[in-house]
Amino acid sequence: MKIGILTSGGDCPGLNAVIRGAVLKGDRVYGDEFVGFRYGWRGVVEGDMVPLDRHTVRGLSRQGGTILGSSRTNPFEGEGGGPENIQRMMDVNGIDAMIAIGGEGTLTAARRLVDEGGINVIGVPKTIDNDLAATDYSFGFDTAVEIATEAIDRLRTTAESHQRCMIVEVMGRHVGWIALHSGMAGGAHAILIPERPQSIEQICEWVLHVRDRGRAPVVVVSEGFHLDTMEEAHSHKGLDAFNRPRLGGIGELLAPMIEERTGIESRATVIGHIQRGGVPSAYDRVLATRLGIAAVDAAQTRQWGSMVSLKGTDVEIVSIADATGGLNTVPDYRYDEAAVLFG
After folding, report:
1. Which is the catalytic residue, given 129, 142, 284, 297?
2. 212 carries an active-site annotation
3. Residue 111 known to bind ligand
4. Would you say 322 and 135 are in contact if contact means Cβ atoms under 8 Å apart?
5. Does the pLDDT value for residue 247 go beyond 90?
6. For residues 319 and 309, what is the distance between their CA atoms, to the nearest angstrom?
7. Domain interval for residue 245
8. 125/161 same-domain check
9. What pLDDT is recorded for position 241?
């Protein structure tokens, strides 16, 4: 079998480990041949690909980013887009199936290609936000939490030195897993997530309570958080390729509001794409490798339209439709656990 691999959407620590796991398992066990599509779906619609073999993927598990490149191209748009054109490209190049490694947008596109065009696709979940349903955790999340936690630790020292309130904005479009885990690990005095809108009065109450104890408040906020007076998450950067608002800036919005109401000098820091960069953690290297291996196994058994996922400590096969049909949101009990520590 000849299999094409693509990495689409935002880059993520562990992508290269998935590629390595898939190629080594396919080559050694099944005698498969692999190609990599360059820059995600863009490479698919343009037929831009490079060969992948066991020598190409040597040592990749510890390398961040993706050797194939990525983009937010929509595979249904452009001259070479759409199921018929993509199937024609695969036939011309002798490609039997594709492994699509990506998040919500990538896997939604993959599901459409399967449903509307019968394209042979296996999905691998990739999101530092950990927002995909049907998998307990996705690779990249652990690394992002480690990076965010280190940033919180560092910002705490300057907060204490100047008795400032520090607002740390982390990624998390629809869900607050990164904020929850890094905030708890970093000892944040308030954690603000998309699932639980809060009033500015409540946030300021937590901040003042911390100040009254002689501490410098640290607030961790997901980019997708919104106050209870806001109808949607803050966005001022336009739309991405999938017509979703580019989020970011809620920390800068909150800082002057907190300072005005509390009299505490407040500063916002946006960690941003630093959370995506650098080498993956040991946990993410192992998880990504296991998912790559499982994706090749699923291709051998022709489980098209499926996605590999983590359930507990086991890797299982689920439907892409199940993964993209809902979000892996932070449940109330997990947030309530953390809220005991606020203020």
Report:
1. 129
2. no
3. no
4. no
5. no
6. 10
7. 143-276
8. no
9. 59
